[in-house]
């Protein structure tokens, strides 16, 4: 386990410093892009509107089961191959893990929303936020754009960083690759609209299971980061709101980090939203918080995100050192 912790520690640092260089992924397809192409291929082949509901659900389930099995096999194969490369194998594993984390890219995308609002007003904010959320940005004012960016940051702190790290520690590269496939499938077909309601049902449920523990860990990291960086009262408020409001969210998992961010930042998040023509109702998290968010609140959320990620990295490094010391003793 201490070897995994060391690899994860170095991968977290590498991802924080380098992120996803655009020049690289213009030449080589990102693994998540390849996952998306496989899911899209299967969806177009087996998600036929004329099929009965039960057949659609079975097709969607078997597609995800088959793709997850492929990821597990690929992960096992890579893990068996890497030791043959010696030190280079360890370096390759660090790079693979870093590629499948999303600290810098997530913070950059959310930061671009604040920059867009400052530089180009509501039009710039809407353009930037459309890159990270599924809802219709044309229906959002400055406050709506800002809150959408912060909500996406909080939720993806779990989906894009904590959950991949968690599943790497639990299952190595097979666990990491399987999780990224599951999360990608949920983002593509796990929607409650007419096209995906039945075919994507299994993908959405499996993603809920995969994120159950990581989402709660992310909320706790945000609470601790609030207390350490913004004062004990901010940490207490983040914890109180998370405990009281997390289960109000329409997602069984997203409410935990979002509620922690809402409490720590003093904002009211979530609530009703629109995805294209579909309006989704939902209660507010931290109802008593401020609703008129702006670019400054996005900056504060990014600062909280980095504080949470720093805490995650510090805890991972500490655990790896404890493991090494224990082994030496």
UniProtKB/TrEMBL annotation:
<keyword id="KW-0169">Cobalamin biosynthesis</keyword>
<dbReference type="Pfam" id="PF03186">
    <property type="entry name" value="CobD_Cbib"/>
</dbReference>
<keyword id="KW-1003">Cell membrane</keyword>
<feature type="transmembrane region" description="Helical">
    <location>
        <begin position="161"/>
        <end position="182"/>
    </location>
</feature>
<keyword id="KW-0472">Membrane</keyword>
<comment type="similarity">
    <text>Belongs to the CobD/CbiB family.</text>
</comment>
<feature type="transmembrane region" description="Helical">
    <location>
        <begin position="300"/>
        <end position="326"/>
    </location>
</feature>
<keyword id="KW-1133">Transmembrane helix</keyword>
<feature type="transmembrane region" description="Helical">
    <location>
        <begin position="84"/>
        <end position="102"/>
    </location>
</feature>
<dbReference type="GO" id="GO:0048472">
    <property type="term" value="F:threonine-phosphate decarboxylase activity"/>
</dbReference>
<comment type="function">
    <text>Converts cobyric acid to cobinamide by the addition of aminopropanol on the F carboxylic group.</text>
</comment>
<dbReference type="GO" id="GO:0005886">
    <property type="term" value="C:plasma membrane"/>
</dbReference>
<keyword id="KW-0812">Transmembrane</keyword>
<dbReference type="InterPro" id="IPR004485">
    <property type="entry name" value="Cobalamin_biosynth_CobD/CbiB"/>
</dbReference>
<protein>
    <recommendedName>
        <fullName>Cobalamin biosynthesis protein CobD</fullName>
    </recommendedName>
</protein>
<comment type="pathway">
    <text>Cofactor biosynthesis; adenosylcobalamin biosynthesis.</text>
</comment>
<feature type="transmembrane region" description="Helical">
    <location>
        <begin position="60"/>
        <end position="77"/>
    </location>
</feature>
<dbReference type="GO" id="GO:0015420">
    <property type="term" value="F:ABC-type vitamin B12 transporter activity"/>
</dbReference>
<dbReference type="GO" id="GO:0009236">
    <property type="term" value="P:cobalamin biosynthetic process"/>
</dbReference>
